[in-house]
UniProtKB/TrEMBL annotation:
Cofactor: pyridoxal 5'-phosphate
Single GO MF annotation: 5-aminolevulinate synthase activity
Keyword Acyltransferase among UniProt keywords: yes
Cited NCBIfam families: 5aminolev_synth
Keywords: Acyltransferase, Heme biosynthesis, Pyridoxal phosphate, Transferase
Ranges of residues in domain Aminotransferase class I/classII large: 46-390
CDD domains found in the cross-reference section: KBL_like (cd06454)
Complex and partners: Homodimer.
Protein name: 5-aminolevulinate synthase
Family: Belongs to the class-II pyridoxal-phosphate-dependent aminotransferase family.
Lineage: Bacteria, Pseudomonadati, Pseudomonadota, Alphaproteobacteria, Rhodobacterales
Catalyzed reactions per annotation: succinyl-CoA + glycine + H(+) = 5-aminolevulinate + CO2 + CoA
EC number: 2.3.1.37
Amino acid sequence: MDFDSLFNAQLDTLKDEGNYRIFAELERKVGAFPKAKSHDADCPDEVTVWCSNDYLGMGQHPKVVKAMQDAVAACGCGAGGTRNISGTNHQHKLLEAELADLHGKESALLFTSGYVSNWAALSTLGSRLPDAVILSDELNHASMIEGIRHARCQKMIWKHNDPEDLDRKLASLPSNATKIVAFESVYSMDGDICPMQEIVEVAEKHGAMTYLDEVHAVGMYGPRGGGLSEQLGLQDRITLIEGTLGKAFGVVGGYVTGSEALCDFIRSFASGFIFTTALPPAVASAARTSIAHLKTSDVERARQKQQVAKLRMRLDQLGIPHLDNPSHIIPVMIKDPVKCRQLADILMQDYGIYVQPINYPTVPKGTERLRFTPGPLHSDEDIEHLVMALTTLWKQCAIAHAVA
Ligand code: PMP
C-alpha cells in the first residue's frame, strides 16, 4: 500500500488552495529581538519579526533568561515525571501561587500549554458535571472547540461577542442544567475584545459558570498584567480564568485559575493534566520571574501601546486598510490566500520583514490577512521600513486587485 500517495493527495489540495503552511526557519538571539537570523536561502540573513506572540519581548528579558539559566543549573532539565509521579517540583508550586495571586483566585493549575489547558479543563468540566451544557462563542479558539467536542456534553454556539444571543440561549435551557459560558477576552485574529461586563451579567442572571480564555491578554492588560478581567475589575466574577505562559510572558505552558475546589477537581480528573510529563522546573522559574516582573513594571506595556498606536497611525496616513480594534493586534486584510502568501514572501525576501500569512482554516476563507503585533522592541525605524514596504507593494496592481 502506498500510504504516501494518500498523504500527498490531501497536501496537494492544500497547496492548490494556497493554504499549505510554510514555516520560516528563524534563530532568535538574546538581546536582538525583534531581529532574528533567517535560515531560508531566499531571505536576507537578518529579518525583523512582525508577527511574534512574544508580545513584550519577555522571552529575552535578562531577568527571565537568568532565572531559566539558574534553575537549569540548580535543578537540571526535565521535571522527571508527571505531576503525580515524582514530577511536582517546588518551582511548579511557586508558579501556581504566583498565578493564583495574579488573577486574585484561590488556586491555579499548570499545563504544558495553553492549548492543553483549554482542552483538558473544558473536556473535564463538560463530561463530569451533571447535565452540563457548554455555551461557546462562535469564534472561540480551536483548543476550546476540541475540549468541548471531547466533553461530549450538550453544546450551544452563541453569536460572536453577542450577550443578547447568549441570554436567549441560556434562557432556553432547563434550570437544572450546569451551564458553562466559554469565551475569550481578546480574539487573536481580529484583535477585537469581548463585552465582558455584559457577558458576566447575563451568565450571573442564569446562574451559569464563566470560563474565560485570557491567552492574548495576560501580561498585556490590567495594572499588574492580570488581563482584561483585571483591567475591568471582573476577576472575582469569572469562575475560571485560563491563560498561557507562552505569549506575553515569553516562555511556554498554560494554566487555569479559580477556586480551590475547581482546580482540585481538574487536577483530579483531567487526563491532559494527569498523564503527561510536567513542565521543566526551569520553565516554571522563568515564567514566574516574567509574571512577577510584569506585575510591577509597566514600562514594556506602555512602550508597546505607543508602538501599536504609531503603526496604526502610519497605516491610516498611507491608506493601508486594517481592522479597527482596541487591542494590540493589527490585521491587514488581503482577502485572498494566494495574494496573502505572495505578499508575505515578497516582504520577507525583498525587505527582510517577516509576517506569517494567516489563511484558512485559521481564519474563514476570504478573510486572509497579515497580522502585525508591534512590540516595545520595534524601533520607529522598523515601523517606517514596514509601512514603506507595504506602500510600495500596495501600489503594485497584483495586491491592489486582491484587496479591492
Ligand atoms: N487560546 C487562544 C485564544 C489561543 O490563541 C491559543 C494559541 N494561539 C491558545 C489558547 C493556546 O495557547 P498555547 O500557545 O499556550 O498552547
